[in-house]
Design goal:
Elements (H helix, E strand, L loop, with lengths): L1 E7 L3 E7 L3 H13 L3 E12 L5 H9 L27 E9 L5 E4 L4 E2 L12 E5 L4 E11 L10 E14 L9 H5 L5 E4 L2 E4 L10 H5 L5 E16 L5 H22 L46 E3 L11 E5 L1
Helix pairs in contact: 1-5
Amino acid sequence: MKVTVLEKTEDTLKLRVEDVRPGLMNALRRVIIAETPSMAIEEVVILENQSPLFDEIIAHRLGLVPLKTNYETYVLPSECTCEGAGCHLCQAGFTMEVEAPEDGYLATTADLKPQDPDIVPVSDKIPIAKMARGQRIVVEAYARLGIGQDHAKWQPVSTMAYKMIPSVKVNAKKCDGCKECVEACFRQVFKMQDDKAIVVDELNCTMCNLCVETCDVKAITVTYDENSFIVTIESTGANSPEEIVEKGLDVFRKKYENLIELLPGRALTPRPKPAAKKAAAPKPITTKKKTTPKKTTKKTIPKKTAAKSKSTTAKAKSSTKAKTTKSK
């Protein structure tokens, strides 16, 4: 396999990958989308909510906020020594306490106070709720590693796509300089030179064949190499595209090793649970409410919503009864 970097920005990576079969390329694409972990808020404790939004809507919006992810510090709950109960090795906490002034207030991700400074929203301008004068929101939120196969909020990429590398040829002897191919191509693959059409950006071709259809003298041919691809990776901001690709390859390698172990004649060897490098850290302190609600109700988001929620009060640390919503 030969890999060449064509374009690289903070959140986007474009690669040219050669000498690889389409099946393997598609397997890697699916692993990066569905099985490469990233951080997302999984559980929200609603201590006070006087905004116009229901508790479930606030929990849903918080769950879809993309978070920075540290693969060196956190592990998946299924691989943690706490067996998914929630500890500093697999869980990061947030608190948010906002009260609208007289002219109202728009609560955003800038109001989320992280327990771990490495696990923060990718942007502090994502809106959460618009509040009128005097309205308050007090919540606790807990983020965990997860995979996109369980919920889209855990997908580390917004785009992971590939296409076969096109090959565009112009027969100069047949070309009559009509310019129709240049005008028909919306990707600016061609340009005129010495009254002949020439190819200037072959990789930008989408193989739509509009140029072939508009050329009356049949001077243009468009083919592709089925073992070479242009791969585009666009991160949500959780990690750099390079880190996401490396982690995806690591996940792919482990799946391959597990398959080999399951073949006849191979002894299964238990894999030790990974040890996190981070020292123990306390969970965020629950903010006490100024007013005690008369009633405590449990609410569950309907199954039809994009993020399912379950009610729980196990995370509330104050003596005040709190409403808890868990997103799945």
